[in-house]
Amino acid sequence: MFITSVELREIRLPLVHPFETSFGRTIERRIILVRVVDKSAQEGWGECTAGEGPFYCEEWTESAWATLNTFLAQRVLKKEIENATGVWELMRPVRGNRMAKAAIETACWDLEAKQLGRPLWKHLGGERREIPCGVSIGIQNTPEDLLEKIERELAAGYQRIKLKIKPGWDVKIVELVRKRFPDIQLMVDANSAYSLADVNLFRELDQFDLMMVEQPLAHDDIFDHAELQQQIATDICLDESIRSSADAAHAIALSACRVINVKLGRVGGHAQAKGVEQVCRQNNVPVWCGGMLESGVGRAHNIAMATLAGFSLPGDVSASSRYWKEDIIEPPVTVSSSGTLTAPEKPGIGFDVNLSRIEKLTVRKESIG
User: With contact defined as beta carbons under 8 Å apart, do 340 and 133 qualify?
Assistant: First the structure.
């Protein structure tokens, strides 16, 4: 692989419905897209999943743009790269900034799969083409709105419901949902909104037969999570705390969790995600694919990742129409009536990028090299 140019674009993509978590409410995504081009003019696409502000993690749209433009693009330009796995090593001298790195790294995987004429999911080593899908439902204006939204998602076939919770929108809401839907696969995501002082609240949640409670405590913690896991019956799933395969190994060794959510941006791309998945599979810890309100490009990469053997639980890989009036890929991502998604057979990410649509949404562009 020989990258001759790296193109950055920021697009503004309005959500069909606002999405609220304990961090705040999002109504429009500022998304950085990366296109890498090789000397034969083939291209690969990646997406930076950083948020509009430094709330999920320290990276955000502006910091990622500067890091990509000033440091990371130059590290992969005009170099003979043996394979996409080696892209991470080229960027290693830049510390952190995993979401920015993932944008370039995943684009290179897309390019390499296209060069080989293979679907990306097969190139990554995926073992099943059909993957189970769940949905993540943000905090709603009223409990009634939440119940109606769950009804719609279940009617659409989704196999698992994830509820965002925060102090004041937790136990009573879960109780209401469980009473209305006694048999569904149900989990909650706290996005680090609680502390060990809230252990009694999590003991209350034990009664609702939840699949897991995701990232209840601090974003950079595993020790308090280990303490909490000892005191509650519900499985803890770690998200923000796991940025590498080493983090996953440490968390498992400490019994800080029984499930891990893998996000491409958070861990730094496909090679790193495969490392986390391998550690978890070797320790019989299930993983699933988390979402970051991605456009179709990021969603296509998530689909490919979720075909790996360790991804045994329904992830947050849902249909394009749940988020966007019109996506930037063709065809849009769709989910079957039984709540599954089929990975495409076309080379690379398997979807066509709608460049004319992207041009209309672009608010800034930079070509490097």
Answer: yes
3-state class (DSSP) for residue 96: coil
- Quote the tokens at residue 261: 């959510």
Selecting among 263, 274, 360, 365, the annotated active-site residue is: 263
| Tens-place pLDDT, residues 285-314 | 999 999 999 999 999 999 999 999 999 999
For 220-260, how does the pLDDT look when each residue is reduced to its tens digit (9 = 90+)? 999 999 999 999 999 999 999 999 999 999 999 999 999 99
Angle among Cα 306, 338, 182 to the nearest 5 degrees reads: 100
Rg (CA), the chain: 20
Please check whether residue 135 is in contact with residue 153, taking contact to mean a CB–CB distance below 8 angstroms. yes
Catalytic site residue from 162, 164, 166, 360: 164
162 is catalytic: no
Q: Please tell me whether the peptide bond between 286 and the residue prior to it is cis, using omega within 30 degrees of 0.
A: no
Residues 6+ positions from 181 with CB-CB distance below 8 Å: 150, 154, 161
Residues 6+ apart with CB under 8 A from 148: none
Active site (annotated) includes residue 263: yes
